[in-house]
Amino acid sequence: MQRKIMSRSAYIFMICCIAAIGGFLFGFDSGVINGTVDGLQAAFGSDSVGTGFNVASMLLGCAVGAFFAGRLADRFGRRTLLIVAAVFFLVSAWGSGIAAGSLEFVIYRVLGGMAVGAASVMTPAYISEVAPAAYRGRLATIQQVAIISGLFVAFLSNYVLAHLSGSAMVELWLGFATWRWMFWIELLPAAVFLVALLFIPESPRYLISSGKPGEARRVLGLVMPEGEVSAKLTEIDATLSRDHKPRLRDVLDRATGKVHGIVWVGIGLAVFQQLVGINVVFYYGAVLWQSVGFSEGDALLINVISGAVSIGACLLAIALIDKIGRKPLLWAGSVGMALTLASMAYAFSTASLVDGSLRLGDDMGVFALLSANAYVFFFNVSWGPVMWVMLGEMFPNQMRGSGLAIAGLFQWLANFGITMTFPIMLASIGLAGAYGFYALCAVVSVFFVLRLVRETRGKELEEMAYE
């Protein structure tokens, strides 16, 4: 009996890890751009606005991918959409590296963005729907560990490739510039993801909503004790509407015609995760540190260090999320981010102009680095993993796909807005002003969590309410 329980737990862990490879690619695709900005600018001759759009263009695809993946997954299945995303990752990785101009590059990055958007909502949904409530938070947090691992590997591979060639802008192998190889590295994990997805089952909750109770029973038998399967089938079925399959209109209250309150909370969680500015660090980290006096090599190494800190924070989140809950991690993370972002804003406010470029004093350079890594730590022990965990589990079964679609759309639109406006803010109000704004958003997020977010720790998905 004990062996059977351990075997079941190992199987659940395995399929969750396979699904989370989508998170790894999400992170890699998001982070790889960090080391290629100078190469893109030189290759395509783009100005600051054009470079900003080249960097941010993926996020438009993410918004589209997140929105339509949630809806299409209700029709075709979570696993099916993850397979489509894997194909898009492969196409985007190859095309981004081979692109000869900005338009071609943007097209491939948008395709990659659609894959990232789909993976960002489907991976937590899939994990939440196959994981037991007792440790669903820990398993769902694997998604964030995978995202940060993807970022870390992207930063590390960028650093190694640039070190081998001397710069992202010069030729590395076979006559191609280093920045192109930075994109092509992604082909390997994308291929692994595609093949591995063929060996995991479909979500049992999707199977029940699609009128396939026999297949759902088989999958539930793989992830829970056989004696509990019939009761769980009945419980899941009771949470689904008898007159129609899940659809977008399920986010509206039939009685009032208004959007259910839980959807607004999901949107708030998704938007605040971006308003604190974390992806400025991930997308523009190399540019940011070079702008205050660090060399390209040192800036890329700082990214690697930040990636390692992020992984450590996510592992701590795994240890805490099912013990102390989601809500305490969120508000504590908001407080920590507000303080560390304010510290970064102060450090950057002391920078002086030297030969037309900003320079931090030695002491303030160290202070800014420590503050930045503390900020990355607070984000990745709280809002980084917890937002995705909550979006994957907080919506009732009938509207999980639609709720995730809408929240995912807003998350990526906010991401696009923050990413696109950072170069503009950098030119107009400087680093201190930009990070001051992100600190203010972190302060507001504290009150949002305390007033509106409800704890979901230990609850079955069938217990999730509409309000």
TrEMBL record:
Keyword Zinc belongs to the record: no
Domain Major facilitator superfamily (MFS) profile: from-to ranges: 15-457
Subcellular compartments: Cell membrane
Xref: NCBIfam families: SP (TIGR00879)
InterPro entries listed in its UniProt record: MFS_dom, MFS_sugar_transport-like, MFS_Sugar_Transporter, MFS_trans_sf, Sugar/inositol_transpt, Sugar_transporter_CS, XylE-like
Topology relative to the membrane: Multi-pass membrane protein
Alphabetized UniProt keyword annotations: Cell membrane, Membrane, Transmembrane, Transmembrane helix, Transport
Origin species: Billgrantia sulfidoxydans
Name of one Pfam family that matches: Sugar_tr
PANTHER family attached to this UniProt entry: D-XYLOSE-PROTON SYMPORTER-LIKE 2
TM ranges: 9-28, 48-69, 81-100, 106-127, 139-161, 181-200, 262-287, 299-321, 328-348, 368-391, 403-429, 435-453
Protein name from the UniProt record: Sugar porter family MFS transporter
The family this protein is said to belong to: Belongs to the major facilitator superfamily. Sugar transporter (TC 2.A.1.1) family.
